[in-house]
Structure formats: C-alpha cells, structure tokens
Request: fold
Amino acid sequence: MPPHLKHAMPKAFWIAGLAVVFLLLYAPILSAVLFSFSADRFPSLNMSGFSTQWYAQVLTDRAMLEALWNSLTVAGITALIATTLGFAAAYADYRFRFFGQKAVLALALLPPTVPLVILGLAMLAFFSRIGIAGTLTAVVAAHVVIAAPFAMAVCRLRLAQLDETLETAAQNLGAQPSSALIRIVLPHTLPAILAAFLITFAVSFDEYVIAWFTGGLNQTIPVAVLNTLQGQVDPTIHVIGTLSFSVTLTLVLIALAVVLSQSGGAMSKEET
Amino acid sequence: MTSPAIAARTPARRFHFLFNRAWQALWVLPLPAWLLLFFAVPLGLLVAISFWSVANYRLTPDATLSAWRYVLGLDFLWASFWRSYGLAMASAVAVSLLAFPASYAMAFVAAPRQRLILLGLAIAPFFTSYLVRIYSWQVFLAEGGVISSIVQALGGKGESLLNTYFALFLGHATLALPVVLILQTIALANVDRTGISAAANLGARPGAILLRVILPAARPGLTLGLLFAFLLSYAEFVSAAYLGGGAFQTLPILVTDLVRAGQQWPRAAVVSLLMIASLLATAFVTVLWAYREKG
Reply:
C-alpha cells in the first residue's frame, strides 16, 4: 500500500471485521474440540468436567473404525488418481497447443459448479446402470471428478512460473521429451503436486453428499456423521469432528506451507 | 525416383511425428476422458431420465414430457424455487458484505507475508468437515446452548435461534466465507496501486478513493465472490435441514425427497435440470456484468 494512503475507515474497523470473520470460521471448530472432551452428554457451557470417554467410545466402535478405514482408502486412492490426472491436464495445457484446448479447460473446471446433490443423483443413476453403485469404487470415481479440478488448478499455477523456453531448449539440445519432463518440469512442480495430493485428499475425506448417494452400505466418516445428525444429540460427533478437523487441517496447512514457502522464495528472488 | 536421402528421412520423420502426437495425447486425454465418462455421461443420463416414465415404481426408458409437465405445474415447486433462489441471493449478498472488511484488511492493512498466512488460515476451514461445523452451530444456537446461556447470564430470555433465517444464514456463511474471502482479497490486492496513489495525490478523500477507485477496479473479483457464495448456498441442503429445521423447503431437499420417498427419478431429474439451468443463467448474467466495460 502506498504509505501516504489513508483508509476510508480507521484501521481498527477493518481489523475488527477480520476478527469477526475468523471468529465465525473457527468458533464451530473450537467448540467441537472443546465439547469432545466434555464429561457431559449434552454440550453446554456449564461443563461438569473433562473426560476422554467419547474418544474411547469412538475408537472402540467397529462401525466407526470401518468408516474411517473406508474414508482413508477412498481419499488416498482419489488423491492419487486426481493428482495424476490433474497434473497431466495442467502439463498438457501448459506445454501443448491442441484442438479443443479451451473446451477441455472448461470441462475440467465445470464439476465444482454443479450442485453436489445433482451430481450425486446423476452418478447414482449412471453407476447403477454400469453395476458399480454401492461400492467404494463408485465413490472414488465420483470423488476424482470433484477433486481433479483442484489438483489441476494448483499444478497449473505452479507451471505458470516455469520458463516455457527451458524445456524446449533442453529438447533442442537433444533431450527426449520424457527426460526434459523428469529433469526440469517435475522437480519444479513437485511442491504443487504434493499440495495437490494433500488438498484432493482433504476434499475426498470430507465429502458426504456424493458418498452418501453412491456408497450404499459402505459408509465413510462424513456419511456416518450425516446419519448420526439425523438422530439424537450424540457427543461422539464432536470427537469425530475433532479427529477429522485434525486430519484435514493438518493436510491443508502443510499444503499451504509448501505453497507459501515457494511463493516466499519467488518473492525474495524478485527482491534481489 | 526419390532420392535415397529423402527416402531415409521420411519414415524417421513420420515416426517422430507419430511419437510426438502419442506423447501429447498421453497428457491431454486422461482428465477429459475421466470427466466425460464419470461427469458428462451421468449428467446426460439425468437429462434422458427426465423424459422417462415410472410404472409400478419401475423406471422405464421413454420419451414423454409427463415429468416436465407434472413438475412445472406444481405450485409448491415454484414456491421452493423462489425460496431457494431468494435465500441463496440474500445469503450471497450478506456473506459478501460480511467478508468485505476482512478482505480489505488482508489486502490493504496486512503486509504481503501476513496476507498469505491469513489467506491460508481463512481457506483452511473450507476443507474441514462442514457437517461437524453445522452440528457445532446447532450447539451454539439451540435453547440452553452457548449463545442462549450467554444471553441468559446477561439477563435476557435466551431463546433458541434454531429454525430461523439467522441460523440458515450462519450455515451458508460457514460454507461460503472462505471462498468469498479469497476471491475478494485477490481482487482487492490486485487493484492497481498507482491509480490509488494518483487519486490520493489529486486530493481525493479516502472514502471517495474506496468508492470510485478501489471498488470499481475490484468489481470482477467481488462479483465472482458473490456468484460463488450464491452457487454454494443455492446447492446446499444441510443448513436448511439441520439449522432451518426443515421449515425451509429448498430445491436440493426436494430433489432428495423425490428420489427417496417414491423413486420419482424423472421428477427429481426435472427439478435438478431446472436448478442447473437457473444456476447457469445466473452465472452467465453475473459474469457478463462483472466484466462489463465501464461507461
């Protein structure tokens, strides 16, 4: 900001606005963490004490552990496929000029704009016709659709910072396309690939609408939470919430740290 | 007669050309292929199903407009449609206004490095369990919950805030705030700083700079933020069900009810397509407006 510019409102106003927003974003997360350790069944501010009983209950619940295993499997395979496809598409968009390039890009960015309820419905109809409805394979196939655009966007942003002539120069000097890719493009894009993997893992790990439609009896953690929500007050939701917040927040914060360390490097390069 | 040199070169070139094409296809094709199979085909099937019929709870391929006629003639469908649309628009405007001071603080008050960290912290909740956060809001809003306890301690009545527009708005804000924050902040941070300095040097007051320089320059990003808040709120059904208490019948709830209650796939497909059409129309108009030339 130019140092002489005065803000339309005092600085405190803008900072207060920021504080309110962060309060709204983090209050439900902090409340889930707090009440996950409550000794009471009903969450209230007059907590009678701290207890880890709900953790013990969740961690010995076979259905819940199975849901956790389903979530981890689905998210892991989804992240692997979505990151591979996302990187390939980002690299294709960066490196080649081909017929229908804009259409491909538009198609790749479309899934996040279609309501998940509708996608879930459409996918259930399709999967039951090809005979995979109600399986984890169906959930993975669907999750890749919604996660791959994130992976593509993250990788494409990173590739945009790579000098396009480097790879061509290497190829002109006799490098095979594959070795130019392995020696120049991949090392440069590796942080983004890692970030894409973590983000797509988080996207899949928390998705419940499509998993609910297409997973059948194979529950993932969020689907288990959704089913619990439909019933009575259940303090174990706070435990599941705290555990899944820890998983996704850690993944996303690592992804951000990776991206930030890169942009920090880029900034310091610009300064020198 | 071809010269031996050319004859020798041509197959090699051909091979080289084909190899390059194959190499290119290896990168270009996988994602579109996956999306065609698992995204475009299912949506196409949904369009087809909207023309199918249901007899004895069995879905039969057909070419009838009966589901369209039935759904479009329902008064409560249109009531749900306008309720959904209005609620989503109102939420989008409210979330955008709520986010603006925070985005401004990140773009103009925070130092660049702080801005990146704050943006990271703002976007991280987007990837955490939305359901659990909604459940937490129930705990805050219910009678005897966190907010009513505080209000009672201060001498107020402390009634339940569940099943109110405020509760529904909180749910939508929880979902959309991170995305709106990131789009607004990027839009504001990219406003040309020399334009701001020039206006200041020419004696423009801070309020005028905000209204006449910063806001118009950031308009595309601010509008995209509004659009995404709308898209997210319009499609969301957990808030309406668990914070609105089911009092607000919205289109996504209608879609799930139609399928679960009576296997009414063609009718559910029609409602879905109506939703997609209205989303696309809104997005189209909004994007046109966002990038409209000034004047």
User: Anything to note?
Assistant: The two ends of chain A are 20 Å apart (CA to CA). Chain A touches chain B through 94 residues (CB under 8 Å).
